[in-house]
Amino acid sequence: MTAIPQVDTTVIGAGAWGTALATLLAGNGQPVCLWGRNGHQLQEMASGRINDQYLPGVVLSEALRFESDLSVAVAAAQDLLLVVPSHAFRQTLESIKPYVSESSRLIWASKGFEPGSGRLLHQVAEGVLGTARPMAVITGPTFALEVAKGLPTALTVASVNPSFAADIAARLHNNTFRAYTSVDVPGVEVGGAVKNILAIAAGISDGLGYGANARAALITRGLTEVMRLGEALGGCKETLMGLAGLGDLLLTCTDDQSRNRRFGLALGRGLSISDARASINQVVEGIDAAREAHGLA
């Protein structure tokens, strides 16, 4: 294993959102390491300073380093930011576990329930890595490309450790990016998971031509159900009226940048589930989330 210079944060996951968050932190003057499974893709990103597949037109900061060796990437930073699909969350935690030190701090920007168990992601993280280390979740109404382009954005950083949440929020902050803090980890996680289900539903409604009235009713009544589920799983109703609940719900239900909404649109226009999924060509978190939320409800 060849060590690389220490960085402030290692971002695990070089998709759109992982690259956008790595770009944000690096643009704020913080050395960042970005790890991804595809070594060829990382080499292209390192040499060309672009991620054409996910963030076209965005120039990546020179403060951003790239690493395809997971052990090297994890050892390079105290703070580990996981940005992987919910179905890969446990596997990723198990993969980094041998390289995590006692001083490591864990953050994730993944949204969803664990497929099969219905667990919230903080429950998965605590089950794999224990409860001794600081942990936080980043969530809210964000499209990766807009964040990478520096467009105005606000989201939530939640942790049972308020000082840790405040530290992460301060490092994300700049003139166009504002992070609010919360201690309600279950609440923000439920908001981030269930909004994807409602985005699919909103897409189906619009794809069927049911109009703006139906979409507004669906969003509003859907929010009521999100709050009920959030409270049942240990969250606070007030949290779900904020950025991590209502904010994320409005964004994903009304804008076609949302892959979950686009998936619903395709279904509403008559495509099969498999064809609709293929047309998106990215992970559609709301599919698994719908199954797990139904079981939890």
From TrEMBL:
Residues 10-164 form the Glycerol-3-phosphate dehydrogenase NAD-dependent N-terminal domain. One of its GO terms (molecular function) is NAD binding. The active site is at K195 (proton acceptor). NAD(+) binds at G13, A14, G15, A16, W17, G18, A144, R259. Substrate binds at K111, R259, N260. One of its GO terms (biological process) is glycerol-3-phosphate catabolic process. Coiled coil: none annotated. The keyword Lipid biosynthesis applies. Residues 184-296 form the Glycerol-3-phosphate dehydrogenase NAD-dependent C-terminal domain. Keywords: Lipid biosynthesis, Lipid metabolism, NAD, NADP, Oxidoreductase, Phospholipid biosynthesis, Phospholipid metabolism. Its EC number is 1.1.1.94. It catalyses: sn-glycerol 3-phosphate + NADP(+) = dihydroxyacetone phosphate + NADPH + H(+). GO terms for cellular component: cytosol. Pfam families: NAD_Gly3P_dh_C (PF07479), NAD_Gly3P_dh_N (PF01210). Belongs to the NAD-dependent glycerol-3-phosphate dehydrogenase family. This is Glycerol-3-phosphate dehydrogenase. It comes from Candidatus Tenderia electrophaga.
